[in-house]
Every structure is written in C-alpha cells, then in structure tokens.
Amino acid sequence: MNAGPPDLVPTRIQLNRPLPPLTYLAPQGLPAGVRVRVKVRNSLAVGLAMGPDPSPPAAKLRPIEAVIDPFPLLPAKLRELQTFAARYYGCLEAHLLPLSLPQAMLPHWEADEDGQRLSFHRDRGAWDALSDLGEAWQREPSILPTLLHRSALRGAGFTEVRLTGVPHPARVTPSQAKVLLALEDAGGALMEPELLEAAGVGASVLGTLEKRGLVARMKRVDLLGQRREAGVDRTVILNEEQRTALEAVELGTFGVHLLQGVTGSGKTEVYLSLAEQVLSAGRRVLWLVPEIGLTARLLDRLEARFPGRVAVGHAGLNAGEKHGDVVRLLFNDADLFVGVRNAVLAPLRDIGLIVVDEEHEGSYKSEEHPRIHARDLAIKRAQLEGCPIVLGSATPSLESWHAAQSGRYRLLRLRQRPAGITLPTVEIVDLRDAYRQLRRKVILAPLLMHALTETLMCGEQALLLLNRRGYENFWMCRACGKSLGCPHCAISLTYHRGDFRLRCHLCGHETAPPEACPDCGAEHLRGVGEGTEQVEEHLRQLFPTARILRLDRDTTRRRGSFEAGLLAVEAGEVDILVGTQMLAKGHTFPRLTLVGVLNADQGLKVADFRASERTFQLLTQVAGRAGRAALPGRVILQTYSPEHPAITFALAQDFEAFAASELPFREGLGYPPFTALSLYRAEADTPMEAREALETFRQRLSVPGLRVLGPLEAPVPRVRDRWRMHLLLKGGRGALGEVLARHPLDPSGPIALDRDPIQFG
Ligand code: ADP
Ligand code: ZN
C-alpha cells in the first residue's frame, strides 16, 4: 500500500457537457471510467477519468478536487460500447454518460460506519486493492452494500407483498386476516406501505405471515405506479416452429436473429424461453421495447415467470424510480432489464441475451442529440458481449429484412396463428367514389358506417384510427387563400375545439382563433381536414348512446391515462375507441372486431423514402387489432389511393410481397438498405447562415465515393424561429465514417449530424 498521497499526473477528464476532454492533474494509476469532481472556472462539475494525457497542454494544470468512485461503475464492455457509439454518431462520450448513469447517482462511498472504508483506499490511491474489490463486486454483488453507507441504497426499490397461493390454514389471527383480505381485494399483490395502510396493521404481521408461507415479500420498483396483478405463469408448450426458432439461437456466441411472425404468433414465448435458459446459466438479459405504455402486460408476464428479478427503465419514471433502477443494476440485483431506447446503454453486466421487440419501430431512434439508434447499438452490444440478439417483428424494417435475406442475420419465422385465431378480412373503400356519390366530405363512408352500426348492435367493440389530432387540421381564409400559421414555425396551426384554441404541434404556441383573417380582414375563415376531436364529435352525433373514448396525445397527457384508457376498453366499458397511431400497437382486446382506418394513405403524402414502409407497417399492425379471440375480425381501410402497393399489400397482409416490391425501388434510388445515409442538419437564426454553414462544409468534403444532396431547405424550414437546412450524404458506412473522422463537427457550431436518419422533418 502506498505510504503517502499518490503522485499527480496529467489526466484527461471528460465532463458531462459538450466539450472535448479537459486535462487535469489526477492521481497516478487512476482507472479510466472513475468519476471525479473538478473545478471548471469557479463551479464544480462531475467528470469521467479517461486515462493519462500523453501530450498535455503547456498551460499550468489544475488538480482535480476529488475522486468520487472507488472503481469504475460502468462495466468495461459498456464503456467500449460508448466509445464506439461516440465515434459512430459523432458525439462525445460525455453525451452518452447520462444515459447510462443518472447524474443523481452519487453514492456516499465515504460515509460507511463499520465496514471496510473504500474511501480510505481511494484517498491513498491504492487502486490495486480497489480493483480487487471491484472485481469481487462483479462476481459477488452482495459484498458491496456492506462497504457502503445505507443512503446509497435508498430508493433501490419498494417491497411488494403478494399472496403465495399456499392453501389457507383453518385459523389465522384477526390482523393476519386483515392482511390476507386486503391482498385478496387488491388482486393478490400490493406495495408494503399501501398494504399496511389498507389492512391497518403493523409490519410485524407480515413477518409472521411470511414465515407461515402465506405471503412472499420481494423488492421491486413500482414502475407504472399502478397495481399489478399477481400474474400466474402459464408455461406453454412451444409448438414446432417456436422450438425450431429456440434451437436456432446459439447461446454464448454472437449472432443476429430476426424473428418474424404476426402479432400473437408466439414471439414473446420464444423470448421468454430463451431468457429462462440464459438466466438459469447465470447471465443477464437486456430486453428492449419501443414504448413503455405497451409493456404493462409484458411486465406482468415477466414478473410471473421471473419473480423479483426484473427491473425496468424508461423516460416516464421519476428521479427516485430511475435512481432505484440503476442502483439495482449496479448492484447486480436484477437479471432482466426491460427498457426503451436508452436502456441499450444501461449498466447491465454479463449479458447473455438481448431482445429487441418490434425492431422496426421508429422510437428506437433518438430524435435528439445524440441521435443513437438503440436497435443498431444493441447489435453492437451483443457483439461486444459475445451473446445472441433476437430482433422480433411482424413487419421487420427493410434493413433487417434485407440483412436476413442476404444471410447476415438468421431468419426465424413463425407462420402459424395460434389455435382459434384467424386473420381478419380486410376491405377497401375508395374515398374518391364515396365523394363522387355523396358530393361532400366523407368522414365515414357508407360501408364503414354500416359495419360500425352492426358491430354496436352485436355488443362488440370498434377501433377507428385517424392519424391527426385536434379538431381541424388548419384554418384557411376563403377570400385570400392564406392559412393561419404559427408565427415561430413554418407550419399551420391546428384547431382544438375543446378548449377553443389554435395550437402549433411543433412548438406549442397557441392563440384564440380570430374572427377575421389577419391578412385580408375577410370573415371567411374555415377549417380544413378533420382530426380525431372532430371524428369523436361526429360519432357522438351519429351514435348518441355509444360509449366513445378518444385516445391521442391531447387526452393522454397525464401519466397513466393511456394505460387507464386501455384498461377501460379491455373491461368492456367502451364501444368505440377512436384515436391516433398510438392505438395501432400491441394491444389485444378480445371483443374488438372492427377496425376502421379513416384515411389510410395519409402517411404516404410525406416526402420520405420510408413513407410506403411506414404506411404498410401501420396498416398491418392496426389490422392485427381486430378479432383476436373467438370473434372474427373485419378491417376497413378508407383511402384515396387504393392502387398504392403499401395499401394493396396491406390488404393482402403479405409482408414478404411488400418487401419484394419495395426493395428494388430502394436499390434503384440508392437508399437504405443499399446505401447508408448521414444527414447534416444546420440550424441558424437566418436561412442564409444555415445554408452557408452547409455550403462551406460541403466544399471542404474530401472523401471519395459519396453522393451529396443539398444544401436544401428542411421539409419544415423553420421551427421555433430557427431556420433549418439539410445536407444529405449517401454512401457506404465506411465512407461516411471517414467523413466524420476527417471533418469533425464543432459541438457548439450550427451543424449537427444525424447518422442513419429516419425522420427528415
Ligand atoms: P407475440 O409476441 O408474437 O405477439 P405471444 O408470445 O404474446 O405472441 O403469444 C400470443 C398468445 O398466445 C399469448 O397469450 C401466449 O401465451 C399464447 N401462446 C404463444 N405460444 C403458445 C403455445 N405454444 N401454446 C399455447 N399458447 C401459446
Ligand atoms: Zn410553432
């Protein structure tokens, strides 16, 4: 052990802000990945040690203020992934750090009372001793908490109490009975504090009941703040296709698998079986989902199968929950981590399997800096961990599909529908005909009206999808032709009748609707293009006794309200569900037999080479909502372009044929998956500035083998008073990486990079 304080040497410190690493004096041997506190100008900041600086600046260097961690908190493989991601997406590792480790995560290393003091070693620079402890921690997580102060563990979860299902003994005490009855009332499980309050008893009763085997206590994070049913694990016997898929996934080695099968074909059962094998072999599972709102049912299934071993992370969690979650991972207290996009960077160790469910979903791509793609990073992470990854979808992204077709990924398919489930019938209404016949705007064509009436008469449920919220899309002046636009953005304002406002869906700007046109003064304003709010009103007039529920971003602002709405549908409290595409995914309602898409080709109008693919995916998904249980389903698509391939293949529900028709287009035009894209986005106070920044960048480009498009105005050229221009680079991944290496962007400059972009707005 060192006798005195260790020598200080120049060390690179990455701050958690958009700056390249700075150089400070830090103890010799300080391991990379340890957090330190440093002074920047006159304030304190947290940074990450990145190793010694071989060529320190000549200026006088400041020493760091303190070393926070005794050893690196993030697993080494995760650090490698961050290094890769920073290089690939052209961001700093500092940008990725907060995604792995919330800022609030500052364990109180120094405050332990009686154990071995980590801070003692740390302050002496005894990194060898610490690194032994660090390794011991990785092997045997339970040792570390004893070395820490308890406050570091605060928030590490809540205790849930659940009924075990052990047969009821003949006699229990009155207070025990109160507990059992309260649990019974709550559907079998409650968080401990709630339970004690509901039963009006003290905690000691729980101990007694636990000893008698009547209840079990387990630590868990109360994720969605909602009551969870004590799920019963239905272990199913896999069918032959599922077994084939299961056996094809080789554990313990890297491989990418694409599991394709319609909703309900049993993909999740395959993931669960794989997870079971991996967990019983002592390794961990990272499970990515596109949206947390869809996971309540999944979490129940996971809890039932792997009680107490599941942790969840997502943006909807409050700080305490997030903190608790990450603490659990750091302490290896959870073996299966479920999360959305950023969970791909969660500090999970020793991963044996990665699952990316609904791999085609756009929500895996971040639309803010750093613009990572969680599915793509998950593949890289699997490679670093040397484990298999399974991408699942009914309608895979054409990127993944192409990779599977060309043998880079292994294709696994589930073609059987489980017994008792048939494909719905899909019909098309040509809105042009409907308009010609009726000579007015048609919200519900006669065929859909008729089907809706029938459905309601049978006491079944209907879902109507329209991908536009608000009452009217925009207001236009009939006299001068101008539409009412946002003063800060280059889009129109949407009319919300419920609160009598015109609102910008980009920046949130809102005003009271004017009486007269602000431009010409004529009182001829009229709304154009119906939104969900108007459809809801229309339905209430047509079916005054029907129970109608609208679910879109306007009605689901409150946390949990979306889930509550879905529960109401499931409980049969709703006859007609109307809403935006948030309704398309993942839910199964046994009594829902009719799905109507009011404007199926709406998504085709956007200028985006993926418009067809997205429309096909949306229509296929929403069609899958109809007729899931015993009742057969019917799907009606209203469209102005019934001959479009995205519509006709959705009608046939034939993903493979759609892919076969779409891929040649992509190849011909040189779009992914046949080339890669880098979108350079410039933003400035004037259009000139934005253009010039990209012009200059373009002129300097010195990498061969690229196609460069632009600078062009972004499809929405102004947002929040900032002007936006695009420069699109097409080429191989290697060439695009070379551009990044040779022409790094100034993090504080006007240009930002979006690699593998999926939104061009
Ligand atoms: P997906 O993930 O493809 O939507 P799931 O795995 O959720 O499909 O399966 C849909 C339903 O069918 C679930 O209730 C599941 O338990 C059930 N299921 C799946 N595979 C089987 C099987 N082999 N035997 C019985 N039921 C099954
Ligand atoms: Zn705006």
Descriptive overview:
The longest helix is centred in the C-terminal third of the chain and has 15 residues, at 655-669. It is globular, with a radius of gyration of 29 Å. The strands form 7 sheets. Strands 11-12-10-13-14-9-15 form a 7-stranded parallel beta sheet, with helices on both faces. It has a 6-stranded parallel beta sheet with strand order 16-26-25-17-24-23, sandwiched between helices. Strands 2-1-4-3-5 form a 5-stranded antiparallel beta sheet, with no helix packed on it. It starts with 7 loop residues before the first strand and ends in a 6-residue tail after the last strand. It folds into 5 domains: 8-140, 3-Layer(aba) Sandwich (GIY-YIG endonuclease), CATH 3.40.1440.60; 158-223, Arc Repressor Mutant, subunit A; 240-414, Rossmann fold (3-Layer(aba) Sandwich), CATH 3.40.50.300; 425-471 and 530-656, Rossmann fold (3-Layer(aba) Sandwich), CATH 3.40.50.300; 676-755, Alpha-Beta Plaits, CATH 3.30.70. It has 761 residues and is an alpha/beta fold. Adenosine-5'-diphosphate binds at residues 236-239, 242, 261, 263-269, 418.
